[in-house]
Amino acid sequence: MEISLPPEFSFKECLHFLERSPRELLHKVEGDAVYKLVNYESEKILFKVSSSDSRLIVDFPIAVPNDEIKQKIERYIIEWFDIDKDLKPFYEMATKDPFLSHLAQQHYGYRIVGMPDLYESLVWAVIGQQINLSFAYTLKQQFVREYGKKLVFKDKEYFLFPEPGIVAYLSMEDLLKIQFSRQKARYTIGISKAFLDGTISKEKLKGLSLIDAKEKLMKIKGIGNWTANYALMKTFRHPDAFPLEDAALSNALRVFLQLDRKPTLNEIREVFVRYKDWEAYATLYLWRSL
DNA sequence: CGCCAGGTTAGAG
DNA sequence: CTCTAACATGGC
Length: 290
Prior knowledge:
This protein has three domains: 2-84, 2-Layer Sandwich (TATA-Binding Protein); 118-150 and 160-234, Orthogonal Bundle (Endonuclease III, domain 1), CATH 1.10.340; 247-288, no CATH class.
């Protein structure tokens, strides 16, 4: 299977992002390709994505699925790498921007590698709240290894993110055992229950405006402004969603603004005025500077 | 040992 | 709307 790519796309830059933690279990980067397991109609399907010329090559190492599932996987990959987005206007803006021009040129074609699964996006965000990324990956690794489904192929393990139906019924103890704090455990179980009883779902939020979707998300305990924006950026791909309170974003801007302290939220807002409608991508490239 | 980390909540001003 | 304490633990 092949997926054609726009000129403003770099698979290499996206792979760099996918490789950022050795503790990642939800995909495996090997050489110039990434392997990922997905679940369709309770059937696990392993696929491999690599790149050649201006297209992505998708292979199925275990078994080639039927056309219907192939089509779903194609859509999944397009969503995952934000392939449909036209980045020309962003680069036009970035070229003229003092903070972004160099980054945009250096990492030309880098895209927001998203999370098509809203549940994963929210739980991962909660896991990452207020702790360093390295420890966040440790928590996620333990969580996925313990409660996610697994497939073994040629002595290698491939995991799916745990499902709400499993996590909703875990006890606080189960999660404390894998080093979640009480707060993270409560939030994670609460979010899982909200998915299970239909309080939230990707379908329900799809099509809502940024404001409306954010409002619905933030009604759930543990989802604040940062988490809601993160999910809207990574799962719904709102171009103007970005995590204002993000510690890493703050660090990146501190350098560009040449401050000897963290920038205030208002200083960050001020900078982002000029990134209007491209806040998500501006954030991506600022993160890349770290 | 100390500071900080891809925050959220509840409460106060 | 903005500011703050409490939460909790590992990374460096």
